[in-house]
């Protein structure tokens, strides 16, 4: 099973991140497009392919967490769809197997009795945009083998589950399980993942407790061995998604000590 690392704010540059990945003996880096260093304009495919060939380190890509492919402002949606197209083109050039993404929950209105999500209220609009997104991605990816993997965050709303199942109708889509995100919401999404166990492609792994995510392995309450076994059975790769070099180094040491 391949283990990788995210781009970390402490590494500052792509080069420093690659060097740390090499030092820790990890197989890949996930470029996070929330960082300025990981924008499409900064990710040079020639350089990244040189690293891939020379060092045996490959790359996955995490789309900007603000990305909203069903915004009610169509100009905003068009900009995000263009970003997805360009990211797919880069992934094909550098043979990145995974583009990871969050689904935007959209705006909610807080009423006296509950929250009402606008994507739920205007579900036809939302699902129409999801179909459009699905068809664009399938066309752009073609037979390249790139997969777009959908990550859990704060528990999927029913309209999100419906949208994901629509996307999973195409083989170019799959699932990312973030085990820390899952734990802090009572693992409410695990039945959904169990129903689609054959589509698990990717895992974001970090320890967690009731109030904190992204802890080093061994610093929280998760059954890490069980979670990693799920990834292993599915053939999923695992990003060790800590936020500091210290936590990442501790996590790698934990894996080696436990022979995971």
Structural class: alpha/beta
- Biggest sheet: strands, sense, closure? 8 strands, parallel, barrel
Q: Secondary-structure element order, as H and E?
A: EHEHEHEEEHHEHEHHEHEH
Number of strands: 10
Beta-strand residue percentage: 15-25%
Helix content: 40-55%
Shape: globular
Strand order of the largest sheet: 1-2-3-4-7-8-9-10
Mean pLDDT score, rounded? 97
Q: Which ranges are low-confidence, i.e. pLDDT below 50, for 5 or more consecutive residues?
A: none
Tally of contiguous helical segments: 10
State the distance separating the first and last CA atoms: 9 Å
The rounded Rg comes to 18 Å
Descriptive overview:
- Helices cover 43% and strands 18% of the residues.
- It has helices at 14-24, 45-55, 74-94, 118-121, 123-141, 158-167, 179-184, 190-195, 224-234, 245-258; strands at 3-6, 28-32, 58-62, 98-102, 108-110, 115-117, 147-151, 173-178, 200-205, 237-240.
- Strands 1-2-3-4-7-8-9-10 form an eight-stranded parallel barrel, surrounded by six helices. A two-stranded antiparallel ribbon has the order 5-6.
- Strand 3 (58-62), helix 3 and strand 4 form a beta-alpha-beta unit.
- Helix 3 runs parallel beside helix 5 (123-141) and helix 5 (123-141) runs parallel beside helix 6.
- The longest helix is centred in the N-terminal third of the chain and has 21 residues, at 74-94.
- The protein starts with a strand and ends with a helix.
Q: Features of this protein?
A:
18% strand, eight-stranded parallel barrel, 260 residues
Give a short synopsis of this structure.
The chain has 260 residues and is of the alpha/beta class.
């Amino acid at each position: 099973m391949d283990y990788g690392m995210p781009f970390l704010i402490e590494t500052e540059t792509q080069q420093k991140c690659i060097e740390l990945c090499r030092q820790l003996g990890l197989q890949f880096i996930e470029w996070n497009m929330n960082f300025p260093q990981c924008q499409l304009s900064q990710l040079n495919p020639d350089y990244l392919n040189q690293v891939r060939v020379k060092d045996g380190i490959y790359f996955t890509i995490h789309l900007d967490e603000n990305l909203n492919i069903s915004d009610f402002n169509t100009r905003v949606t068009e900009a995000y769809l263009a970003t997805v197209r360009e990211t797919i083109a880069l992934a094909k050039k550098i043979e990145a197997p995974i583009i990871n993404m969050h689904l935007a929950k959209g705006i909610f209105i807080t009423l006296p009795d509950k929250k009402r999500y606008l994507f739920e209220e205007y579900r036809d609009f939302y699902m129409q945009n999801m179909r459009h997104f699905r068809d664009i991605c399938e066309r752009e990816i073609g037979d390249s083998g790139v997969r777009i993997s959908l990550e859990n965050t704060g528990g999927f709303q029913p309209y999100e589950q419906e949208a994901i199942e629509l996307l999973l109708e195409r083989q170019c889509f799959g699932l990312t399980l973030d085990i820390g995100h899952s734990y802090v919401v009572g693992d409410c999404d695990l039945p959904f993942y169990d129903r689609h166990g054959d589509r698990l492609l990717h895992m974001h792994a970090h320890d967690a407790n009731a109030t904190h995510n992204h802890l080093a392995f061994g610093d929280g309450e998760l059954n890490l061995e069980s979670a990693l076994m799920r990834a292993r059975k599915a053939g999923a790769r695992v990003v060790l998604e800590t936020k500091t070099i210290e936590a990442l180094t501790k996590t790698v040491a934990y894996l080696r000590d436990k022979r995971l």
